[in-house]
Amino acid sequence: MADYEINITKSWRKSLSMRFDSKWVLQVKAPKLLLRTQIDAFIKKNTPWIEKEYAKISQRNIDKQWYLFGKVQRGLLWELCQDKLLKFYKAQAKKYLIPRCNELAEKYWFTHKWIRITSASTRWGSCSSKKTLNFSYRLIMAPKEAIDYVIIHELCHLRQMNHGAKFWKEVSDIMPEYKEHENHLKSDGWKYRV
Ligand SMILES: [Zn+2]
Q: How many whole angstroms from 38 Cα to the centroid of ligand 1?
């Protein structure tokens, strides 16, 4: 059974009706004098229809889901326009990625000059020869372990500016299970976009 909310409104009407509103709440309209048990029986009788409708709207809105730290966020989405969502992500990215990168750099003895949050859409992060680290704000939508992987990946480029064996050794010394997170970003990364 899906976990939708039900809201019952009574008025001087003759019959029962129901529909899902734009916030995925099942709005039930009932005649004023109808008993709660009768309303419940009506809802119960129509459960197959409700479940089908609910499945339909969730399917329709699947591409409107938004992510934060790898978890799907729904409810608020209806109030968030794309522009606001973008601003929200960029602010979250600054708030989370910069301190986290500094923390990991300190922990594993890396020296970087500057961290920038970019709008890059094709890469999660990059590292320049001037020791500047760049991270896409989109990274904030990914699970925290995947974020750590990207940060560690870029930090290791401070020591190895290539993807050679030495580089991967550095990465796996710090994060032995890095492959799992790399694969996650490859398979699910498409979801983490506005
Ligand atoms: Zn790399």
A: 63
Written as six digits, the tokens of 151 are 């940060």
Dump pLDDT digits (tens) for 171-180: 999 999 999 9
Answer yes or no: are the C-beta atoms of 64 and 82 closer than 8 Å: no
pLDDT, tens only, 21-46: 877 889 999 999 999 999 999 999 99
Give residue 135 CA to ligand 1 midpoint distance, Å.
12
| CA 73 to centroid of ligand 1, rounded, Å | 30
**From the CA of 160, how far away is ligand 1's center (Å)?**
9
pLDDT at residue 78 greater than cutoff 50? no
Tell me the pTM: 0.65
If you measure from the C-alpha of residue 124 to the centroid of ligand 1, how many angstroms do you get, rounded to a whole number? 10
What is the CATH number that goes with domain 71-191? 3.30.2010.10
- Contact by Cβ (8 Å): 37, 52: no
Whether the predicted pLDDT of 140 surpasses 90: yes
- Residue 157 Cα, ligand 1 centroid: separation in angstroms? 7
DSSP annotation string for 78-131: GG--HHHHHHHHHHHHHHHHHHHHHHHHHHTT---SEEEEE--SS-SEEE-TTS
Q: What is the mean pLDDT of residues 127-156?
A: 96
Q: How far is the CA of 68 from the centre of ligand 1 (A)?
A: 23
How is the chain split into domains, by residue range?
Answer: 5-60, 71-191
